[in-house]
Design a protein that fits this description.
The complex is a heterodimer of chains A (114) and B (114). By secondary structure, chain A is mainly β. Chain A has no helices and 11 strands. By secondary structure, chain B is mainly β. Chain B contains no helices and 11 strands.
Amino acid sequence: DGGITQSPKYLFRKEGQNVTLSCEQNLNHDAMYWYRQDPGQGLRLIYYSQIVNDFQKGDIAEGYSVSREKKESFPLTVTSAQKNPTAFYLCASRASDGFKNIQYFGAGTRLSVL
Amino acid sequence: GENVEQHPSTLSVQEGDSAVIKCTYSDSASNYFPWYKQELGKGPQLIIDIRSNVGEKKDQRIAVTLNKTAKHFSLHITETQPEDSAVYFCAASLGSSNTGKLIFGQGTTLQVKP
């Protein structure tokens, strides 16, 4: 079954704690993306990676970090520097097929602060 | 920065009626415009997309129109059904680069009343 798997579905963070959200894809896609979704707002880009071992900041990268050591995996760490981390986090991937930019999304991780 | 404006933010229709959601984009280099449907607690799913060299595209009860001159594009859903109830997002590609980055609208919550 091909797709994008995000885990966990729900995550709770204590103050001062770093937490890591997992994103795995078996679609053989080169590019991967992390978005943050707040109620009543669109998706805002946190980080993206077009190829293994390379990633770029998006519009709201402060307080977040990522790695891309394997093509299949693009984990996102929410650091203690992110003062308002409560949100729904979405991971997406895209095949590099030129003109079309179809992004396929995972089911999301809902992060809350204890 | 570049942005996408989406209206209305909420839309309520009777089952069987049509629904129209409109978006305006600012980046004149945008060349790809997808629409996503997001059900509660799930990730967005692509429902239809259009390229800049096409003015209209239809898929069963769903159609998208694009006016490049005015930088407007719209989603039309005919014969709405209760299962169409969801949040709908429009997006525009950021320029013509190959990063695959998309700029998302704020979302429209569609409620179809039986």
